[in-house]
Design brief:
By secondary structure, this protein is an alpha+beta fold. It is about 50% helix and about 10% strand. It binds protoporphyrin IX containing FE. It comes from Hypoxylon rubiginosum.
């Protein structure tokens, strides 16, 4: 064969091979550590993620800890074939900086996923556009502290009381044996967020109590709604490792279960919206703006939109046709249910395993709310109990309920001195559970450096609060003030559990109120006694959230 043909052939094979690799193999971002073996296969990190998941039923924290192995607080993962690498930022300080101060370079990620499929018109599924801002503005007042105190708190309080009654019933039947309470939290949290959003009761904890007392299964509308809501958590798994996310979504939307749950959910929303609209049509007589009739977040928004139409002389809009309103209401339910339920499950586990902290918390609550009965709702939400605040912060830190929060770079930028091209998905660690590898100050962003200087120049890992991070210790959230008094310090550590910045958790105030009420009523009503090791695993099952695999309690009246 002629030499030029041979050379040409070799060149063509080389070219094809390079092209094939470019098209099908992971393309690491220069300078950012990654797993070499993963980069050498089309499926990237998927096999190692799958095996980690198989062994531990979670992957975000264990894979994130690779940063320790690399000695770098930033690394990259090849999560989906044929797509760009994910950049993992495992440094709480730089994560907070991206969330709080770098909104011009990073926006909420809207990669095709569970929200984009299930509730595409809700705020969580959208980039931060002018439309998003206007939609957020419409809902802003539903998280106003006065609205929460006046309208929402009593609903959460009722749900928390129902939970304590359910546990009284469980305790009577249990003969001192441990009982699985994971679904109790799921029911109580859905009871709470459902009434806070729609003003109607689902009475899930009450239905459970009836079942515990009679030993018979019952079927209620509330239980149907619970299964519908739970379905979204299961959906999250469908995207993990999807070769082609758009195809996964297409297939899912044709799944009979998906269709069934969608129908149930749509029917229920239609009914609720039409009932509320009819109620306000009778109430809005033009003499006042009707604020006193609000019973929940939906009422506030619906009444205002009806009032605006009335004032403009336009026909009252049909709320069932308002896709943005429907999806935002559902977002309240989905984002506000499992998150609080999961965090509360971790809370009781930390209490069970830290009896001293539990006693301190109960004593602090009893000192704040003296007397034989539980505090009334007004008293409960207006009294500051520093040890309760510290326990909540520590629970959020240790539980890592939402393990990461994701941003997309909107422009070519840098993190830790590494180039991050526009359109890269950046996964930010939400908890301070270990010390990240150290880097020199000059590779941090200017805003990160300025923030350190402003806060006194001490790096967080050298603070007393940041020692023994694997231990549950509410005390780390206290500092001494000028007079030498111990005071609660919410800034003792970086707390990214709710994300942050413009796109941080919208329901944070509601969530904190709910944690406050649920924790106070349950801790004042019961002692959480130690449970045997075989029911005391701290392993998590990671779906959309990190949920404890086991959540058993041995209760005793406090
Ligand atoms: C302990 C409970 C909760 C935790 C740990 C939690 C955590 C989070 C996190 C990590 C995010 C992403 C933030 C980001 O990307 O920066 C988020 C978003 C969100 N959360 Fe929560 N959440 C909780 C409770 C709630 C509740 C009760 C609601 C009720 C309405 C809620 C509504 C939302 C909404 C609407 C968003 C989307 C915000 C946006 O995209 O702009 N969350 N939450």
């Amino acid at each position: 064969m002629e030499l030029p043909f041979v050379i040409g052939g070799i060149f063509a094979v080389f070219l094809l091979r390079t092209l094939f690799k470019r098209l099908f193999y992971p393309q690491p971002l220069p300078g950012i550590p990654y797993d070499k073996e993963s980069a050498g296969r089309i499926t990237g990190d998927l096999p190692s993620i799958a095996s980690t998941y198989k062994e531990l039923t979670e992957f975000t924290f264990p894979i994130g800890r690779r940063s320790l192995k690399y000695g770098s607080p930033i690394h990259q993962l090849f999560m989906n074939p044929f797509s760009k690498p994910y950049v993992m930022i495992d440094d709480p300080r730089e994560a907070a900086d991206v969330l709080l101060r770098r909104n011009k370079e990073f926006d909420k990620s809207v990669a095709a996923g569970v929200w984009q499929t299930f509730i595409p018109y809700s705020t969580i599924a959208q980039r931060t556009t002018p439309e998003w801002k206007s939609q957020r503005k419409t809902w802003q007042d539903s998280m106003n502290p006065d609205f929460l105190r006046r309208v929402v708190a009593k609903h959460i309080y009722t749900a928390a009381k129902d939970l304590t009654k359910l546990w009284e019933a469980r305790n009577l039947k249990s003969n001192g044996q441990p009982v699985d309470v994971s679904s109790d939290f799921s029911y109580a949290a859905l009871d709470a967020i459902w009434t806070a959003t729609f003003g109607e009761q689902l009475d899930l904890a009450k239905a459970q109590m009836q079942m515990v007392e009679t030993g018979k299964k019952i079927k209620t509308r509330g239980l149907d709604m619970h299964s519908t809501v739970q379905y979204i958590n299961e959906l999250a798994n469908a995207w993990r490792g999807a070769l082609w996310p758009a195809w996964t979504r297409w297939r899912m939307m044709r799944n009979p279960n998906y269709i069934k749950y969608m129908e149930v959910k749509d029917k229920e929303i239609d009914r609720i919206l039409l009932d509320a609209s009819a109620r306000f049509q009778k109430l809005l007589d033009g003499t006042s703006d009707g604020e006193e009739h609000d019973t929940c977040a939906m009422d506030l928004i619906l009444r205002r939109s009806m009032l605006a139409a009335q004032k403009a002389g336009k026909p009252i809009p049909d709320p069932t046709k308002d896709q943005r309103m429907r999806d935002e209401l559902l977002l309240f339910i989905y984002a506000g249910h499992d998150t609080t339920s999961t965090t509360l499950q971790w809370f009781v586990k930390y209490m069970t395993n830290n009896q001293e902290a539990q006693t301190k918390l109960r004593n602090a609550l009893k000192a704040a709310f003296p007397g034989d009965s539980l505090p009334e709702v007004e008293d409960l939400i207006s009294t500051d109990v520093p040890y309760l605040n510290a326990t909540i912060e520590e629970t959020l830190r240790c539980s890592g309920t939402a393990a990461r929060t994701i941003r997309t770079s909107t422009t070519d930028t840098e993190v830790f001195g590494h180039k991050i091209p526009a359109g890269t998905e950046v996964a930010l660690v939400t908890t301070s559970q270990w010390h990240p590898p150290q880097v020199s100050e000059d590779v941090r962003s200017p805003s990160s450096r300025a923030a350190l200087e402003k806060s006194g120049g001490i790096h967080w890992t050298s603070k007393p609060a940041a020692q023994n991070l694997d231990q549950f210790a509410p005390e780390r959230w206290f500092r001494l003030d000028e007079e030498g008094n111990e005071v609660f310090d919410s800034g003792a550590l970086f707390q990214n559990a709710f994300g942050g910045g413009t796109r941080g958790c919208f329901g944070r105030r509601l969530a904190m109120m709910e944690l406050r009420i649920m924790i106070t009523l349950t801790t004042m009503s019961f002692k959480f006694l130690p449970v045997p090791p075989e029911l005391n695993s701290f392993q998590a099952t990671e779906q959309l959230l990190r949920t404890p695999r086991q959540c058993y309690l041995r209760l005793e009246a406090a």
